[in-house]
Amino acid sequence: MKQLLRAAIFGIILPALPALAQPLPEGLRSARFLPGWTDQNGGRVAALELVLEPGWKTYWRSPGDAGLPPEFDWQGSNMGDVVFHWPAPEVFLSDGMRTLGYHDRLVLPFTIAPRDAQKPVGLSAHISFGLCEKVCVPASIDLVADAAGTARDPQIEAAMKLVPALSTQKPACEIGEIEDGMTVTLSLPEPGADVAIEHSADPKIWVSAPEISADGTEATADFVTPEGKPFALDPDAVVLTVLGKDGAAEYRGCTTG
């Protein structure tokens, strides 16, 4: 299965790479937190910035057939819930595999709710992620942000404009059983567009690359649990991201019947 191939690609190179104080991982030109600002609710708006070497890429929250999404071990102060604002990814096709991510530069905004609204949020983290050129490698860095500024950062605002628009619609879908899980066929709001399909509730559920129908109106993906058997798949947990020519849109949930 594709998840086994993904594990094989990365499993041979698991040792952690040096933190930012050491030489940067191969393929990474620079990494930093954009310190951001404090919003009207007391939340801190900031971003991770990764600048890549030419020809290298890094990954979206759901990387596809191979790749490692960014993972954050937060070590700051007064940090509550963190909400990421993922810019729409690109689709990469290489050696028969389909992955989703970013080339050249990633600015990944996020908002941190303070535990105590009367105190500032201190921002630091250990971050793990994947980098890929011809060879894919896991990378890790340690970052500490400067204090939040008083003005909004146009770089962060520009990245937030690339976040897929959240639709209130739920596309039609058909859900059925397969030997090792479930399969979902979704009607596409924009026929012919690239899409990503995810499961919102359980990160252990592997979702295959979507297969697009010949007329471009439907996308089908398999949902497989570690147990490798059919399960009760909630239609509201199906997330469809449409990467359209005029912008991206996200659809949470689908309607059966």
UniProtKB/TrEMBL annotation:
Pfam families: DsbD_N (PF11412). InterPro entries: DsbDN. This is Thiol:disulfide interchange protein DsbD N-terminal domain-containing protein. Keywords: Signal. Residues 1-21 form the signal peptide. It comes from Paracoccus aurantiacus. Residues 37-143 form the Thiol:disulfide interchange protein DsbD N-terminal domain.
